[in-house]
Amino acid sequence: METKVTNTPVEAAHLTNALERRLDLAVTIADLDKDIERRLKRMGKNMKMPGFRPGKVPITMVKQQYGQQARHDALNEALNKTFGETAKARQLRVAGHPNIEPKTSESTTHIEFSAVFEVYPEIKLGDLTGVEIERPVLEVGTAEMESTLAVLRKQRVRYEPVDRAAAVGDRVTIDFLGKKNGEAFQGGQANDYPFVIGEGAMLADFENAVLGLTAGESKSFAMTFPVDYSSKDLAGQAVTFDITVKEVREAILPEVDADFAKTLGVDDGDIVKMNAEIETNLKREVKKRLQSRIKDQVMDALLKANPIDVPKALVEMEIQRLMQVARQNMEQQSGGKMKDFPMQREWFFEQAKRRVSLGLILSELVKVYELHARADQVKTIVNETAQSYEHPEELIRWYYAQPQRLSEIEGVAIEDNVVAWALSSAKVVDRAVAFDELMGQKS
């Protein structure tokens, strides 16, 4: 085999990014024919055909049936081998798979090809000195405990019928009919529809119209949909609704007693033990969310300090992976009903590009600053993760039963090391974060 190399970007007419390279490959016809003959002989040893003993089928008949396959396999192997050896000799770090196309040639001794591919970018790490990174801070205290307890009680609320006007916090059941220009519109009608006033399940104007009504009362009102409403046909449109309240129920929160503690998994109903477990779990969750936020801050700083060209092939591979994960999740959540949901690759482009960029930057940081995961770090992360399970020892055994399962944990440890390195290099400014904001709760 012979190979010609162009270790520069391809011609401007074909240039799509600065990472593209081209290798001109030439496969010797004589060598290719010899390999094809060897493959056909091997195939012939196992070929069965009526009228011939196994392995005794004439080579001309073997060639007639398997000639194209043998040539295809031989040529692919020759090209892949030649490309790989040449790229390695030239110290080219190939990203993704090459696109190999035949070239027009009048040679009687060689078949010429052109391989266009991308290489990994050369990364010169930027300096984080002087870069400001905000570090969110929050101490769990009495107020945070009370807020969490309130959420836990609300999650276990029950609703009892009341004979009074509907108020904020009540669950109402209604019939409604919406009309635009006097005509009912799609999605604007329902019977026995329940919702809790004040939780945002319905538009504010709609909820306000229900306030003050008692069971059995009806009302007509006009409202205008927001201009950014999800349905384009209704966005910014004026409509009218006819509503009838069927039932009003008020929220009854559980008392903080032994029965409540048992619903949280405290078998003996001990309130002190319940509070201790809530505090432990809350501190663990707050720590995790603070770490996630600071990690996002660091990753944003690294992307800004290290602008790089990203191989399109790697981005496309990541897009396909993200699409597959999203499709699997949708299929599981819908019980298989949405397995054929049409997805657009554009939905995942920015996320894929960010992930690939960070992967390349982090890889360089780990190599330069030796930020590899340590065994003690991995053990600590596994133990902390296991504590949120009912039987933590089982999860720990599961991880260590097969070392390859620890690869995801090792990735977390590496990210932790990168974050620690970045915070030691940059200018860190602590910023107090509100508990409700951190936990994503309504104030």
- Give the terminus-to-terminus CA distance: 71 Å
Rg from alpha-carbon coordinates? 33 Å
User: What oligomeric state is this?
Assistant: single chain
Number of alpha- plus pi-helical segments: 12
Order of helices and strands: EEHHEEEHEEEHEEHHHHHHHEH
Strand content of the residues, in percent? 15-25%
Would you kindly provide a written description of the structure presented here, covering whatever features stand out?
This protein is α+β, with helices and mostly antiparallel strands and 443 residues long. It has 3 domains: 2-119, Trigger factor ribosome-binding domain (Alpha-Beta Plaits); 132-140 and 271-313 and 343-439, Orthogonal Bundle (Trigger factor, domain 2), CATH 1.10.3120; 158-252, Chitinase A, domain 3 (Roll). 45% of the residues lie in helices and 21% in strands. The protein has helices spanning 29-46, 59-89, 142-155, 204-210, 258-263, 271-305, 312-333, 349-369, 375-386, 392-401, 407-425, 435-439, and strands spanning 2-6, 20-28, 94-102, 110-119, 132-137, 158-161, 171-180, 183-196, 218-224, 238-252, 427-432. Strands 6, 7, 8, 9 and 10 form a 5-stranded antiparallel beta sheet that branches. The longest helix is centred in the middle third of the chain and has 35 residues, at 271-305. The chain is extended, with a radius of gyration of 33 Å.
Question: Key features?
Answer:
11 strands, five-stranded antiparallel β-sheet, Alpha-Beta Plaits, 443 residues, Chitinase A, domain 3, alpha+beta, disordered N terminus
